[in-house]
Amino acid sequence: MTEKNLIRAYGDRRDDGIIQISFTLPVAASEKAKEAAQLYCQKLGLTDVKVAAAERAADQYTFFIVYARSPVIIDYNEIDTPEISIKKLGFYELNDLIEERLARKVVVFGACTGTDTHTVGIDAILNMKGFAGDYGLERYPWFDAYNLGSQVPNAELIRRAKEKNADAILVSQVVTQRDVHKENSRQFIDEAKAAGIVGKTTLLLGGPRVDHKLALELGFDAGFGPGTKPSDVANFVVHQVLQRHGKEAKGTHFQGEPT
Amino acid sequence: MSGLFVTDEQIAEARQLASDITDPIFDLISKNTTISVERTVLRWFGVDGVGNLGAPLVNLMCDRLKEAGVLNKGAAYWYGRALRMGATSPLDAVERLTAAPLEMLQPLPPEEEKKLRDEVRAEARAVVSEFKGRVEQRNELKREFPMAPAPHKYVIVATGNIFDDVDQARAAAQAGADVIAVIRSTAQSLLDYVPQGATTEGYGGTYATQENFRIMREALDDESRKLKRYIELTNYSSGLCMTEIAFMAAWERLDMLLNDSMYGILFRDINMRRTFIDQYFSRRICAMAGIIINTGEDNYITTADAYDAAHTVIASQFINECFARRAGLQDWQLGIGHSYEIDPHMPETLLLELSQAMLVRRCFPNAPLKYMPPTKHKETDIFFSHAYDVMADLVAVWTRQGIQLLGMMTEAMHTPLLADRYVALKAASYVHRAARGIDEEFTVREDGKIANRARFVFGKALELLRECKGDGMVAAIGRGRFGDVKRAETGGKGLDGVIEKAPDYFNPFLEIMEAST
Questions:
Q1: What is the pLDDT of residue B479?
Q2: Which residue of B has its CA nearest to A174?
Q3: Partner-chain contact A61 B423, CB within 8 Å
Q4: A68 Cβ partners below 8 Å, 6+ apart?
Q5: Which of A14, B167, B183, B511 is most buried, with most CB under 10 Å away?
């Protein structure tokens, strides 16, 4: 038993439990609306509710910004995340690692599949330029990255990737209306199973509404959400490839891996 | 005017180059029509509705004409033939034509042919006159309830359900929006038909249909009267049906349309010839309807880098302007597009963005311009995101943008919540109010970073235009000069819908529209 490390939200002193939330109620702005916001927050379990702003967002909608105390306490030591034993590698280190341990290029295919037309996510990860000063996979000399763009049928992406013996396939999903991203991602996994690449090729899902848990549930090997840098994906793929080829112990954890 | 940066002669040279570049394309445009142009002609005549299997009647009829190899005479001609066969209504005309052995039909005696055309022309004139009456209704409402001063604050609704869109649009107008865009369902641009009726299901947006246009414009007319401030409505005239959408939008009195001469080619992989021909006809309609078009150069710098590709935006703007003017659009109708997209991690980006926006203003002094917010480098820290958008608000008012699409703090997260729009509108109203006229107070030094950057970008734009003139537009697009996207002349979707006109091709609407400018 490790000892407990109890924590609460931090406003300006330890354990004050202060949080800030904002939300809209579908009523006209009025004193009564403000009371409704109070009551709403109390029902969320908050105390010392201060409705800082009650703004008329439209005739029949009021937008609230609220500060309040939350009684919630969590034990930080209860949270189970894997131990990190390997540091995240930079651009040059990672290229060196591939050259040294694998001695061939890592082949990666990516596309925004289904009806989704948004290439912004897949471009940020794959294009030379990359994202926020972090180079895209095309820039890595030891990666062979193919960006097929948007509106690529799942089966087409898999077929093209198989032709080149891809080590990893990146599926980007931006549009999330009515969970179309989940539906399309499930269909991708069905196609991948039919093609016999599940468990052989590393399958990654990315997008603004994607997280690692969702990706695992859908049958992917990992999921990457907002703020992901190309180097995060590059590191993950390299470790996966090394592990699949027995060149690194299975289940080795590394810095920046998706959780 | 913030600064001159470049000489009038240099700007005139860019304009002349754009004109030379587009010349050969007008040859293509005048010699060919497309299946979507012909469907639009039938829509003008009131052919509406769908057949048994839900396919629009205009598609059924044009597909039949194309299959029979006779669409090159123009759908209007065959419409006239159907009338001569005794058709009493547009639907009856479609039925008669789809049933007729079109391959076997011989031309009528010359006298009859002339009569047919005269009759159809007379009907076209009557339709156009009714149409102009509808446009006048809008102009009247605009005179009665003038718009707020520019930059006009433009926000997007995208629920997928037109009735929910109406609620969101009214709320946005009440919060200060001047322009409402209803974003289209994902991939509608690749449909070679326009869906029918009011729609309540869409992915990533709401289908553009004539009925949806009518519903939304009616709601905004009502809201304009309540707010005593005219609220504009915009949609997307792009993709395989750009001409039909332009017609429907014009008929339903929309105020603005996204309409670009190259966007479909580059970003939707629609065939080049198809796009060039369709953009011309759709712009002719916009010109007559008094619709403001929004060009799509902002898209180039979501695929290519905004700093490195700044000159491609300027070059493309001159080309878009040239295509637009040749289609009869006036300068006040040119919402020439650009955006605030330089990587915010770089130093001096406010100076760079000001430079670019000032340069666009300098090149197109009489166009309203359409300014787009940051999207590519948005992260999910909404507080930073909000501050980032506010800088775009400042640049927009400083450079007198006519139309400003407001950034949303939850960009890169989800389609905007009602409150996200409210927050953006409140901040933009503040910045516009606070800084209006700032350009007249500060003169930008001609030897400084802003001016030097503008001159550098303009110089590279001229080089690119010279290259396009030397090698042709087609080659330039083939080399990925715009948006880093490469396309071939015979690649992409929709080429099979391009049809060479017969010597006796007939299109009375094109005649009317081309005669009016």
A1: 86
A2: B412
A3: no
A4: A18, A19, A21, A41, A46, A47, A48, A49, A50
A5: B183
Whether A21 contacts chain B with CB within 8 A:
no
Which residues in chain A are closer than 8 Å to B412, comparing Cβ atoms? 208, 226
Is A133 within 8 Å of B343 when comparing Cβ atoms?
yes
> Can you give the three-state secondary structure of B104-117, one letter per residue?
HCCCCCHHHHHHHH
Q: Which uninterrupted H or E stretch holds B434?
A: helix B418-435
Does residue B382 sit at the A interface (CB-CB below 8 Å)?
Answer: no
Is B302 within 8 Å of chain A by CB? yes
Q: Confirm whether B298 is a catalytic residue.
A: yes
- In this structure, are A113 and A64 located in the same domain? no
Question: Which residue from A minimizes the CA distance to B485?
Answer: A149
**A110-139 pLDDT per residue, tens:** 999 887 777 778 888 988 777 777 888 988
- Give residue B424's identity as a one-letter amino acid code: A
Q: Which of A25, A51, A75 is the last residue of a domain?
A: A75
3-state secondary structure of B417: coil
Q: What is the pTM of this model?
A: 0.83
A134 shares a domain with A38: no
A134 and A207 both lie in a single domain: yes
Q: How many domains does chain A have?
A: 2
Query: A241 and A120 in one domain?
Result: yes
Decide if A109 is inside a domain. Answer: yes
CB contacts, 8 Å: B189 with chain A:
117
More confident residue, A129 or B24: B24
Residue A20 and residue A94 share a domain: no
For residue B374, give the nearest of B398, B402, B359, B352 by alpha carbon: B352
Of residues B2 and B302, which shows the higher confidence score?
Answer: B302
Residue B268 touches chain A, beta carbons under 8 Å: yes
Q: Is residue A217 part of a domain?
A: yes
Q: Write out pLDDT tens, residues A14-34.
A: 999 999 999 999 999 999 999
Burial of B67 (0-12, 13-18, 19+ CB in 10 A): exposed
Mean pLDDT (whole number) for B356-378: 96
B190 touches chain A (CB under 8 A): yes
The pLDDT of B61-75, averaged and rounded, is 94
Contact B202 A177 (CB under 8 A): yes
Task: Report the residue from A116, A177, A209 with minimal CB separation from B160.
Answer: A177
Question: What would the mean pLDDT of B320-346 be, rounded to a whole number?
Answer: 96
Residue A90 is assigned to a structural domain of this protein: yes
Check B171 against A57: CB less than 8 A apart: yes
Out of B345, B413, B426, the one facing A132 most closely (by C-beta) is B345
Q: In this structure, are residues B199 and A160 in contact, taking their beta carbons and an 8 Å threshold?
A: no
Whether A80 is in a domain gets the answer no
Question: Do A129 and A68 belong to one domain?
Answer: no
Tens digit of pLDDT for each residue in A24-76?
999 999 999 999 999 999 999 999 999 999 999 999 999 999 999 999 999 99
User: Alpha carbon of A94 to those of A44, A106, A109, A165: distances in Å?
Assistant: 47, 11, 19, 21
Q: Mark yes or no for CB contact A57/B204 under 8 Å.
A: no
Instruction: Flag the least confident range among B42-51, B135-144, B395-404.
Output: B42-51
**Do A59 and A104 sit in the same domain of this protein?**
no
Residue A1 has pLDDT above 60, yes or no: no
